[in-house]
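Researcher: Structure for this, please.
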Amino acid sequence: MTDQPTTQAQFKQRFISVVADLRQDGINDPEAMAMIGGLAAELADALNKTSWTGIKQSLTPAIYDELLQTFQKRGNEYHKDGRTKLAYAIQLLSVSLVAFTQRSDADIAAGEQLVDQLIDRAAAIHRQNRPRH
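Model: Predicted structure, token format:
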């Protein structure tokens, strides 16, 4: 019988992989960064927050669950439809969201801070560049 990794260990492996991909390729992809910033800014606006970090700090368990379910559904739809950059953006927001609950792990806490800074910066750039009405 083989030992199955815990859910937390599986998440940590996925999180490390997503952060590594982000550092290697994601930050160099303006379209992906624009989608990340756009999604984060839209969510922050909808929840009357100024940043992605602000959203995470104010989440209730019910909103956390709803947001995670929505991310999963939309991410799967985008991936199925070939909209890989939108799926990538959703995946990054998703792992950031879950990392919030796994901060007791020092590696995840450090990665979460890096990811959140990048998301908040992308959202700020999106807000600066969006058309004013």
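Researcher: Any notable elements?
Model: Residues 56 and 130 are 23 Å apart (CA to CA). The chain has one domain: 32-128.
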